């Protein structure tokens, strides 16, 4: 049988899809476990706790001017709390985007290099939607201060979405 036969290509495609799904499930598990632990064991960050570790758990301070701590914050909106007064429309929009990305990934995508980035975006989005139903808001916990700039607090799901989008840009940039 030829190396590029349809049977072998379909088998390789299925294998790649299963690998992508396992990666997505691992990310979703890490996201939900980290959020549960933070929600359960770290008090909600007080807006007056401006000193390191900001009411959370200090991981490192002043490593090349960078600080990192685990803190418990809530986010009722989209990125950086935007549209926080529109939780229900946001969750409906997110669920529609997840469905659309899943349909595209499993039914129309023919570029295997897009599978991992898309699954990262889907897993992250599912993690943040799950928060809406579990907690009534998204749980954020990763707090970096870069050379005095207090970066917005985020979570594992946000990281997966950002990495997935970044990978899509890089892949698209280098495609002929």
TrEMBL record:
A cellular component annotation (GO) from this entry: plasma membrane
EC number of this enzyme: 3.4.23.36
Catalytic reaction equation(s): Release of signal peptides from bacterial membrane prolipoproteins. Hydrolyzes -Xaa-Yaa-Zaa-|-(S,diacylglyceryl)Cys-, in which Xaa is hydrophobic (preferably Leu), and Yaa (Ala or Ser) and Zaa (Gly or Ala) have small, neutral side chains
Record's bilayer topology term: Multi-pass membrane protein
GO process terms (BP): proteolysis
Superkingdom per UniProt: Bacteria
Keyword Metal-binding: no
Pathway(s): Protein modification; lipoprotein biosynthesis (signal peptide cleavage)
Transmembrane segments: 20-42, 86-106, 118-139, 151-174
Gene Ontology MF terms: aspartic-type endopeptidase activity
Keyword Transcription regulation in annotation: no
Cellular compartments annotated: Cell membrane
Keywords, sorted A to Z: Aspartyl protease, Cell membrane, Hydrolase, Lipoprotein, Membrane, Protease, Transmembrane, Transmembrane helix
Active site: 140, 158
UniProt function note: This protein specifically catalyzes the removal of signal peptides from prolipoproteins.
Family: Belongs to the peptidase A8 family.
HAMAP family xrefs: LspA
Record protein name field: Lipoprotein signal peptidase
Source organism of this protein record: Candidatus Protochlamydia naegleriophila
Lineage of the organism: Bacteria, Pseudomonadati, Chlamydiota, Chlamydiia, Parachlamydiales
Encoding gene, per UniProt annotation: lspA
């Amino acid at each position: 049988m030829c190396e590029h036969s349809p049977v072998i290509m379909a088998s390789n495609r299925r294998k790649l899809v299963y690998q992508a799904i396992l990666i997505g499930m691992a990310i979703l598990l890490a996201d939900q476990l980290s959020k549960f632990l933070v929600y359960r064991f770290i008090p909600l960050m007080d807006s007056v706790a401006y000193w390191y570790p900001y009411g959370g758990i200090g991981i490192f301070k002043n490593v090349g001017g960078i600080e990192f701590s685990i803190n418990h914050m809530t986010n009722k909106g989209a990125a950086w709390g935007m549209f926080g007064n529109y939780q229900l429309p946001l969750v409906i929009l997110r669920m529609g985007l997840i469905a659309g990305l899943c349909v595209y990934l499993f039914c129309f995508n023919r570029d295997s290099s897009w599978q991992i980035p898309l699954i990262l975006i889907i897993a992250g989005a599912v993690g943040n939607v799950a928060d809406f139903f579990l907690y009534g808001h998204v749980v954020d916990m990763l707090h970096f201060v870069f050379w005095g700039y207090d970066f917005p607090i985020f979570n594992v799901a946000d990281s997966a979405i950002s990495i997935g989008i970044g990978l899509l840009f890089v892949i698209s940039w280098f495609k002929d």
